[in-house]
Amino acid sequence: MRRSSGVTLTCWALLSSGLLTLLQPRPVASQPPGRGQDPNALVLGQSLPLSGPSAQLGLDYRRGALAWFKSVNREGGIHGRRIELVSLDDKYEPSQTLINTRQLLKRNDLLALFGYVGTPTTKVALPLIEAAEVPLVAPMTGASLLRRPELRMVFNMRTSYRREIAAMVDEMVRDAHHRIAIVYQDDAFGQDGLDGAMAALTSHGLKPVAVTTVQRNSAQVGDALDDLMAVNPNGVVLVSAYVSSAALATALRERGSSAQIMNVSFVGTQALQRAMPVGEANGIGVAQVVPFPWNRWIPVVADYQRCLRLSDEASGFGFTSFEGYLAARMITEALTRAGKNPTRQSLVQALESINDLDLGGFQIQMGRDDHNASDFVELTFLGSQSWEP
Description:
By secondary structure, the chain is of the alpha/beta class. It has 2 domains: about 40-160 and about 295-375, 3-Layer(aba) Sandwich (Rossmann fold); about 160-290, Response regulator (Rossmann fold), CATH 3.40.50. It contains 11 helices and 15 strands. Helix 1 (about 55-75) links the parallel strand 3 (about 40-50) and strand 4. Helix 1 (about 55-75) crosses helix 9 (about 300-310). The protein is globular, with a radius of gyration of 20 Å.
């Protein structure tokens, strides 16, 4: 481990595939609006991928959040009221996110939206969310469009993609990787990443040697591969989910490229590792927005591991589930501050009151004019050695 310019660079290796059991998609029960509602429940709604090519992101995020919510409910809930998370599958497709959001907003017991996953999916729901004045807490996206000051209902836990990409480019330039190409997912998520990458390169007086795209939820990356091989970059900023990222990285290695590949956190570190042939992911970099989930010396990591073991013994630890857990910690802190009978407005005020909160190695700070809780960024690199907690 070494530290440079405030960014920790951790060379690490994931657990062997036998120790990291792939979480299989499971049916998620959703309660029809207006039926069987529990007056003692604090109802949170979310739309995220639970099936389809990008399902692992949603499954892991939800698993981490549920681990904390179950722990809270076992201890009697918040002011005697249990937390209920209603999760609807959108397959990482914006059209389905719209349908899900409309369904959730029809519920008269819905207190807040929580943990939407993805930029293009969350983007289409924003007008509905703002118009309904329902808080959206901890969406899993670092896009700039969710960090606009006029959005009064959005509360981000994770840092921005621009901070992640700046750290990635800084590291590549320090290691003499100056011929940098940009590959981005052809949607709102990728466009935000492209803008961030261009700004980061400009700060070093550089221009990309190539700019090319991949498609959401697709492993068809032939055109992007040809564009990269034509210029032979020694660094690649890759802004995509794990499906296309894994396909492109594998193809680059098969074609003999030794370029340093760097991914934003949304790629899903373990999902990326599992989607590539054994050993092919070695050396690939991934920016992280939460601390290392296997470092039990960090108090909040130790508690995350405890909660996850109690909730789901079969599944291992990981960055995405840890982010879900931390997001759940943030919203339960706000629910506690909002009192026994919270309203949407009192929850907003409670979220804005969270200032200098230390969860045990992860700091959260927000205010009336600052709905962005964290600026944590850490770079990690996949390695070849076995590592066990």
